[in-house]
Amino acid sequence: MQGAALHGTLDTRLIGVVIFVYLLATVLYFCYIPFRNKWLGRLATIVVLVGWIMETASMVIRTVISYKVGWGHAPFTNLYESMVFFSWSIVIIYLLIEWKYKNKTIGAFVMPFAFIALAYTTIGPGIRTQIEPLIPALQSDWLIAHVITCFLGYAAFAVSCGVSIMYLIKARAQERGKDIAFLPDLRILDDLNYKAVMIGFPLLTLGIITGAAWANYAWGSYWSWDPKETWSLITWLVYAAFLHARFTRGWRGKKTAILSIIGFAAVLFTYLGVNLLIVGLHSYA
């Protein structure tokens, strides 16, 4: 137990450093926007990579120690651990987008989400950073599948929200007869929004399905209309409406950007609002 506490301190200290690393990366990306200096952009990306590697190391340490003390579970079991994984997922999806589209300005609108997620682990109410044994309801392989799919989906939706904010800023400027040249073309932003949702939606769908299987294992019922289950369904319906409107109604641009922002607001309420405001089966998180 003492070893777990010691190593728990090590992994949380790493996360404390990563918070400032992601803040630095965010500042560098914002500085890159007006100056367009390629070395500044490269430095921002290197800083993000360093932070992501440190964050990965923190999760690995936490997992190893859990197994060493005999609890044997991955770091996805409480609000603190899920926030770390959420931030980690946002960064890896962002880095893939930066690599594919070669546009670093997107980092200024996506990295703040990764920074805020980690910063919340130090200021959020009731967050437990200790490595702890699992309660019986969490002792299932379905838990790992549920958390990984949900939070990868949430991360994709965070990216779509950041891109949508960029779209609305650029579209507003063009409506006023101006242009913000450093932001990607509206068609690229619209396509990025769509692709991010297309990544997130099936992952969220899998997350809901695996969550239902986990609920049946833990509580004997696939669906109980628990507040988090209900809000997960609401979130799913928002993004289903996004895809339906795009495929059947031809919605593009501003309408789908607004839907993405609404969808991510639903994600945040599902993830944090329900935990903080409503008591339910997920209150242990």
What does this structure look like?
This protein is mainly α and 285 residues long. It has helices at 2-35, 38-68, 79-101, 107-123, 141-175, 186-219, 227-248, 254-277. The chain folds into two domains: 1-75 and 103-127, no CATH class; 135-285, no CATH class. It contains eight helices and no strands. Helix 1 packs antiparallel against helix 4 (107-123), helix 5 crosses helix 8 (254-277) and helix 7 packs antiparallel against helix 8 (254-277). The radius of gyration is 19 Å and the shape is globular. The relative contact order is 0.11. Residues 1-7 have low confidence and may be disordered.
Which descriptors would you attach to this protein?
285 residues; mainly alpha; 8 helices; disordered N terminus
Oligomer: single chain
Q: What is the total number of structural domains? A: 2
Q: Which class best fits the helix and strand makeup?
A: mainly alpha
Strand content: under 5%
| Spans where pLDDT lies below 50 across 5 or more residues | 1-7
Chain-wise SSE layout:
Elements: H1 2-35, H2 38-68, H3 79-101, H4 107-123, H5 141-175, H6 186-219, H7 227-248, H8 254-277
Helix pairs in contact: 1-2, 1-4, 2-3, 3-4, 3-5, 5-6, 5-8, 6-7, 7-8
In brief:
This protein has eight helices and no strands.
